[in-house]
Amino acid sequence: MNLNSSKLKELMEINGLSQNKLAAKANVSKGTISRVLSGKRGVGCKVASGLLRVFPEESVDTLFKKKGVL
Asked: What is the DSSP string of 29-50?
């Protein structure tokens, strides 16, 4: 799965979350959040579950894109 980075950035702005704060809430490193947002790393189970915990009102379809889908 790939991250819908524009949607995540929008949610971060709405909720006043920096990358550091988001990383802490999602229980992942701030480097992981940085790499996922920049597209240097895909989204694994730990990151996906952490983001869904932070943003429970969002669906998998709004936060993530399947690989190979534009």
From this structure: -HHHHHHHHHTSS---HHHHHH
CB 50 within 8 A of CB 26: yes
Predicted model pTM: 0.86
> Which of 37, 20, 38 has the alpha carbon at shortest distance from 29?
20
Q: Are 52 and 58 spatial neighbours (Cβ–Cβ below 8 Å)? A: yes
Average confidence score pLDDT of the chain: 91
CATH topology of domain 2-65: 434 Repressor (Amino-terminal Domain) (1.10.260)
Question: What are the residue boundaries of the structural domains of the chain, listed by start?
Answer: 2-65
The radius of gyration computed from the CA coordinates of the chain, to the nearest angstrom, equals 11
Q: Are strands 2-3 and 64-65 parallel, antiparallel or unpaired?
A: antiparallel
Asked whether residue 69 carries a pLDDT value surpassing 80, the answer given is no
